[in-house]
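Journal club prep, shared notes

We agreed each person brings one worked example of a sequence with its structure written out as tokens. Mine is Gfo/Idh/MocA family protein. I'm keeping it raw so we can talk through how to read the token line rather than staring at a rendered picture. Sequence first:
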Amino acid sequence: MRIALAGLATSHPYTDARTLTRHADLAVWEQDGERLARFMREHPGAAVAGSLGELLATRPDGVVLTVPNPQAPAALAGVLETGVPVFMNKPAAASREQLEALDRLDIGDRVLSTSVLRFAPAFAGVRLDPGEVLSVRATVRHDVGMWAGGYNAWQDTPGQGGGTMVTMGVHGVELLVALLGPEVRLAGAAGAVRHYAGLRSEDTGVMALQWGSGITGVVEIIGVSGDEAYTVTVHTASGGEHIVIEPGEDHLRGLGYEGTVEAFLGMVGGAPSPVPWEQTRAILEVLVSAREAAPAVPAH
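Then the structure, token by token:
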């Protein structure tokens, strides 16, 4: 089995490869020489392609797609032409223009795009009775200080990678949609720079959500943090439930990276995506709407 890594634009494909290499031969294409060299130091046996077309011409059994968001719709269109399953690292779109470009593609059940947290052991088995739910809250704690120094500036730029609101906010929205379904809309959003003055976006943010059933929800994004952790609180009339997702001793397992790759390999074996595109589309709509509603606020 051969898995192609189409792009190394974020940290995620490097992490994905550590699990994939136990199951498959790897092929890789990346535009940035430094990022490619870093990958090859860890995976010297991987086959290197000079372009996305050349990579796809090797006829891989599956593709992990991770390119800068502005390039993502065109790259996904190329992969879809091959018919092989694709795991598109989050977020699949970070602006209205990008989302509309994805809407023009024929995306079926051979595309998986998700926050890895959906497959974290602490969360994957959770089931709710929506009729018992009053409201929900997801809190994302993930430091974004690396962007303040200029690292991967496109991710921190609202019109390109969406900034903290989108790139980190996806984790919280993903978890809530996984629990309550895709009939959700953004009710409001706000963001601010409270600590990292060099950012193009924000280091704190909040979204208010509402489902068609009337359930309300909140996503908090804390981008100034000494640790990485994600929590979901479900409020019911009888009290509620508190779910905590942490890296633990094995962050690949604890944060859901391994589970996501296992789900993708199931698609390589013929299974449909375990995350319907309807859910992914709803998550992207919330994120893009939040970005539009909350332009970055200068530090003070």
